[in-house]
Design a protein that fits this description.
single chain; mainly alpha; globular
């Protein structure tokens, strides 16, 4: 099923409505959809390098709006929609531990999930369940998603198709290492 969704999402890049499709995929990915917008964004930017930053902006704005939907799912619809979504991603049983970590890390959790391959929707839903302050949530979602999408856009704009394989295979790892270093820095400062 995931493979069919992936192929369908990729086929949208060839559509004349590709930017609208990117906005839709970015929106739903932040709240429940399993395929990241990068799958659509990468071929779009390769096809239209002059529009790279416009494409990144569309993905960012739609993703943050989708994050607000994820927040609302957690805030008001957790039993009906939130728990089934978490169960689908195999995070339902880990949710209590996630809530404890989220209470400790807050904004940093949103930032890390927003730039790494971690399912961003899990954090958006958790933010709503925990009634995380909306302004810090939105600001950290904007920062994280803009960082992620604009770095991808800049790399593709500068290097074109040859960088695509690196992005698809290793950029998630690079963002994850960046976040580990960032968290490590915060932990070290806390203990110094």
């Amino acid at each position: 099923m995931i493979r069919k969704l992936y192929d369908w999402t990729l086929s949208l890049a060839r559509s004349r409505h590709a930017l609208w499709a990117l906005a839709a995929v970015s929106f739903v990915e932040s709240s429940f959809f399993p395929i990241p917008p990068d799958v659509l964004m990468i071929p779009l930017i390769i096809a239209r390098p002059r529009d790279a930053f416009k494409i990144a902006a569309v993905a960012t704005i739609a993703s943050v709006l989708g994050a607000l939907l994820g927040y609302y799912i957690g805030y008001g619809l957790f039993d009906v929609l939130g728990q089934p979504i978490l169960d689908f991603y195999g995070k339902g049983s880990e949710f209590e531990a996630l809530k404890t970590q989220f209470d400790t890390w807050g904004v940093l959790a949103v930032l890390i999930a927003g730039v790494t391959p971690l399912p961003f929707k899990v954090v958006t839903i958790a933010s709503g369940v925990l009634h995380f302050a909306l302004v810090p949530f939105v600001l950290s979602a904007i920062a994280a998603r803009a960082l992620r999408f604009f770095i991808v856009a800049a790399l593709l704009w500068k290097f074109g198709a040859p960088i695509r394989d690196f992005i698809e295979k290793r950029l998630g790892l690079m963002f994850t290492l960046f976040c580990v270093i960032l968290v490590g820095g915060f932990v070290m400062v806390k203990f110094l």
